[in-house]
Design goal:
The chain is mainly beta. It is built from 2 helices and 12 strands, in the order H-H-E-E-E-E-E-E-E-E-E-E-E-E.
Length: 223
């Protein structure tokens, strides 16, 4: 009789699905289908990213003056080296080459434009694009200072309109370049920038022959 009582108790437990459901399981005592669930959690980090794919070259050997004087001493003829007599203002030079990494997605920008792409998936805060330039050149002192470089937003491949509307001299500390809030979150988006060289007080600069380089930094941040 004790053994029979044990068997009856076992059957009673097996036929009571409520006891199994307490632990998240599904059970059907007949020939039907039993179902249970598992919760899946997904955490996505907030990410901002930036990718710059272009190097810019200013080769002043391509700008050799044919002679003569500039009538307005407050400004200098563009793309003329050395600056003409009478030049007392700034001398502006356009890039002679822009090398974009082979395989960069999207169209290669035109000369002087830098391929820049940004990413953000954060929905709160202010998203800014900033830029700055190293304080020195490598290879020595060419004459023009690094902050004679200027940037503005490219007229193509810049859907959000990020960057300065007008050419603005770079600084040596991170500075917002007129973008403010880029608006809603987005996937990778081109915000190409244009760079030129605007040498202030060109007539007083001591130009030193050689090849020099410096780094222009682009930064995106969410605050």
């Amino acid at each position: 009789m004790k053994r029979l009582g044990f068997v009856l108790l076992f059957i009673a437990v097996a036929a009571t699905p409520a006891l199994a459901q307490v632990h998240g399981g599904g059970m059907n005592a007949s020939t039907g289908t039993a179902t249970s669930t598992s919760t899946v959690y997904l955490t996505i980090p907030g990410v901002v990213g930036i990718d710059v794919e272009t190097d810019v070259t200013f080769d002043l050997t391509s700008y050799v003056s044919a002679g003569g004087t500039h009538a307005d001493g407050s400004a200098c003829a563009a793309n003329t080296f050395p600056p003409l007599p009478g030049c007392a203002g700034s001398a502006r030079y356009d890039a002679t080459a822009s090398d974009t990494t082979t395989g960069a997605p999207g169209a290669t920008p035109t000369a002087g434009n830098v391929w820049v792409s940004v990413f953000c998936n954060k929905t709160t805060g202010t998203l800014d694009l900033l830029t700055y330039v190293d304080a020195t050149w490598t290879g020595g002192t060419p004459g023009p200072v690094t902050t004679d470089l200027r940037t503005r937003r490219s007229t193509a491949n810049n859907t959000p309109g990020a960057g300065n509307a007008a050419l603005t001299h770079l600084t040596t500390s991170p500075t917002s370049i007129g973008v403010g809030t880029l608006g809603a979150t987005f996937g990778w988006t081109r915000v190409d920038q244009y760079i030129d060289l605007d040498v202030l007080n060109a007539a007083t600069v001591t130009w030193t022959a050689g090849t020099y380089d410096t780094l222009v930094h682009f930064r995106i941040q969410k605050s």
